[in-house]
Design goal:
The protein is mainly beta and about 500 residues long. It is built from 1 helix and 40 strands. The protein has a 40-stranded antiparallel sheet that branches.
């Protein structure tokens, strides 16, 4: 501890000794008046202190205090730094040059302009606190308070910081800017605004030369109706693409669509997004929300040019592809499958590979399942199965109403399945009730069948084209006939709420 204290004292003494030994020299003046204490200098005045030369039209020199005041066309040259001003107050004891008036500080390709600048010759650092402007070949930067460390080529800005670039404007409260790399570092709320988009963050950096940004906290990119959020976001403005590695969120306000994931790759020019790790899709549909999870997700936007002279604007539409272990939940609709494709152009959602769909107490399966949305993609209108259609509804613990056919169309009204049309090779098995008691079983075969539902339950079945069927009392109906061929009951894997979409299950009960 004693050694540390002695070391600090020695450093202070050495710096003090340096300041005292380094005298201000008068190198030239056209006319000098006064005595040894105070001298008045006129015309082409030149002072030297250490490696710095200071020029002015006139000056007052205080030899005893080792300081001077300079007036008119003031100029300081310290190695590769040149500073111009109207008035200069210099103290050798503090190694501090205080400049006032119209001030310009030039270093390399950077020019600092202000009306108030203190320059520390020992640290080679300039400081202003009444407003200043920095100009380099790329940017114009203004702030209320600023510091420039020449040796490190580092600028610190505080309060009302604005960086203007030909392609964007950056606004923040606190910024660090390195002139050698053209990188701006910011701590606090920051926006980068261009004609194409807006960037926001509270912690990160921006390379004004390469137009690349890294943002770590509460960051987002806003373009048109889309918002891209993330806590660890890299963005390349020239390529208009970026990567998010934590808490990625993409929101489309026009489509009322929000995408969540822990990893996201974004391409703005192609309007393409890839997401993986904890993927969640939330889509607003007629006052309700659809929640869907998958292993990975692709989101794209496409533009279709006008088809004829009557159309003036191109049409933009979205396409979503969700792959592997897809589960989704809506209060009146749930589903499980391997993959999903949503195409806003034809307002259709495609459920691919082993799809299972539930609407109220009705389970639907088929080779593939399609969900037809309204033209504005806000309402579910139809459920379409083109092959191997099968509908099952549990009637009792071990009794199930069943409908089977080649294809079906289910009609949705006010978020409720109200009718199912089964086409080709139709079969039904239906339990009849007298109030709450099951009294019989009707098993029939008919090419085309329509079932009408009320409150999610089959209320009426209409057989078309010469049906063939039998009715049996429950106690006389053989159990081996209680299942239509290929019957399967998938209730064990049905999503029960929005959080359950993340829990993949394969324990299918038949």
């Amino acid at each position: 501890m004693k050694r540390l204290v002695l070391s600090i004292l020695a450093t202070i003494v050495a710096l003090s000794a340096f300041s005292q030994k380094t005298k201000v020299e008068i190198k030239h003046t056209d006319l000098m008046k006064g005595d040894r204490e105070v001298r008045r200098l006129y015309g082409n005045v030149i002072f030297k202190h250490a490696d710095a030369y200071m020029y002015c039209d006139s000056a007052l020199s205080y030899a005893k205090d080792n300081r001077f005041e300079a007036y008119g066309r003031v100029r300081i040259v310290n190695k590769d730094v040149t500073i111009y001003g109207d008035t200069l107050y210099f103290s050798s004891a503090e190694n501090l040059a205080c400049l006032r008036g119209d001030i310009r500080m030039i270093h390399d390709q950077m020019t600092l302009s202000t009306h108030y600048l203190d320059y520390d010759l020992q640290q080679n650092m300039g400081f202003y606190r009444n407003g200043g402007k920095i100009v380099d070949p790329t940017n114009v930067l203004t702030s209320a308070i600023g510091q420039y460390f020449v040796n490190d080529r580092m600028l610190f800005f505080k309060k009302d910081v604005v960086l203007q670039n030909p392609n964007y404007v950056m606004n923040t409260d606190t910024m660090k800017y390195k002139t050698s790399t053209n990188i701006a570092y910011f701590v606090g709320p920051t926006t980068v605004t261009s004609d194409e988009n807006l960037l926001y963050t509270v912690n990160g950096w921006y390379n004004t030369k390469t137009d690349q940004a890294q943002m770590y906290q509460e960051s987002y990119l806003h373009s048109g109706s889309q918002y891209v959020y993330g806590d660890d976001m890299f963005y390349d403005r020239k390529k208009d693409e970026g990567t998010i590695r934590k808490n990625a969120v993409i929101k489309d306000t026009t489509q009322e669509l929000t995408l969540f994931a822990q990893y996201c790759f974004y391409e703005g020019k192609r309007q393409h997004v890839f997401m993986t790790d904890s993927v969640l899709i939330v889509k607003a549909i007629e006052g309700d929300s659809l929640y869907m999870h998958s292993d990975s997700l692709f989101f794209s936007q496409y533009k279709i040019p006008p088809m004829d002279s009557t159309q003036t604007d191109s049409v933009t539409y979205e396409e979503i592809k969700a792959y592997h272990k897809v589960r989704f939940y809506k209060s009146d609709l749930q589903g499980v499958c391997d993959s999903v494709v949503y195409n806003a152009l034809d307002s259709m959602v495609y459920l691919c590979k082993n799809p299972v769909l539930w609407s109220d107490e009705n389970q639907m399966t088929g080779f593939d399942i399609r969900l037809k949305l309204s033209d504005n993609n806000t309402k579910l209108e139809q459920i379409i199965i083109q092959s191997d259609a099968f509908v099952v509804a549990q009637c009792d613990d071990d009794k199930f109403n069943q409908m089977k056919g080649k294809s079906l169309i289910g009609y949705i009204k006010n978020n409720e399945l109200v009718r199912v049309d089964m086409f080709q090779n139709g079969e039904t098995l239906y339990y009849l009730k007298d109030e709450d008691e099951i009294v019989g079983v009707n098993r029939a075969v008919c090419n085309d069948i329509s079932a009408y539902l009320k409150n999610g339950k089959i209320n009426q079945i209409v057989f078309k084209n010469q049906p063939e069927g039998t009715f049996s009392p429950v106690e006389q109906f053989p159990k081996k006939l209680s299942r239509i061929d290929n019957f399967k009951w998938h209730d064990a894997i049905r999503p029960v709420d929005a959080q359950d979409v993340f829990k993949w299950r394969t324990d299918v009960e038949e």
